[in-house]
Fold these 2 entries.
Entry 1:
Amino acid sequence: MKSSLIIALCFLFSSVAFSQRSGNEANTNGQGPNQEERQKQWEEMRLKRIAYFTDKIGLTSEEAQLFWPIVNDIQDRSFALNREMMRLIRIPRQERENKETDYEKINTRMAEIRQQQSDLDKERYIKLKAILSPEKLYKYYLAEEGFSRELLRSFDSGRQSNRNRE
């Protein structure tokens, strides 16, 4: 559950960080980066993630070929669940004030999403256990934590530098 939260935070902060506008990212009409620039930033972040995890875990090329498809697939499915959870959490004000809002249905779905996240964590563990040594699997979990911290630091430093420019 903790790793799901960290993955969710990574996704949330990386998407927010990439949507922040720096001086050189502004396009000609004064708006933030366009979809193409965001996609490029997302790909750069994924490449940094690959390098970080490969280094911290000590993956061989054979392990990496098996490891990354598993991790990326589960991460993508986890992100989809997180997006749905955020949609449920951010019910528009008008809908919250509507007495007919079915909170029981919303609460039930949120519990289901949490269970699905837990199931994904277990699936990832089982699949990675089959290809990594116990030590490397442990290093993977440490790398997840470390990469999340790095993302948070870069997000925070980006916010600090944006404040200094204003």
Entry 2:
Amino acid sequence: MSSISRQIVLDTETTGLEPSQGHRIIEIGCVELIDRRLTGNDFHQYLQPDREIDAGAVEVHGITNEFLADKPRFEDVVQDFMDYVQGAELIIHNAPFDVGFIDAELERVGGWKRLDSYCRITDTLVMARNKHPGQRNSLDALCGRYDIDNSQRQKHGALLDAEILAEVYLAMTGGQSVLFQEEQGAEQGNGEGQRIRRLPADRPALAVVRASAEEQAAHEAFLQSLGDDCLWS
């Protein structure tokens, strides 16, 4: 029996860009995937940072100090947050940014190790750059590439971005293996236990990512480098 795969798709919003300059987390948003299915067991928390939010950051996420005035501090929710993520694989876009801020908050509270001591971390930006080299791989760009609706994303928000990233991650890592699934025959041992399962007609079409002109040219140059006997020329 295969073990359950638990993944947490995580995003944060912050007061600025550098935790080394004293900037703080002001929002954490997480959604849970169990065996690649959203469970609805989300974690979402706004946080009081005890410092001013940079004007540029407010323009990005729209969160103000006035809104956060009555919100808890990170030390008030750290136990709940760590209980939620511990042992899971964290899916994060541009992971060094979010992980750097979380590590700084854990260090500030004291008594905690680095986040990667409790979780395995997967960076979807690295995945996207490997899968689509030379192309834009922001979350918005990936939404366009995989035909994912992000029309509600007028400003950045940690929970909304985590929900969108979950869809992007599933699209990026989805394979054609879903087309063929094991199906029990009418009788055990009749040799017909492995059959092709037809997909329903109303199933959304799989995303097709076509090679760019530059990629096609690079492929052709590689084939020519193999010599005249290349079978694919």
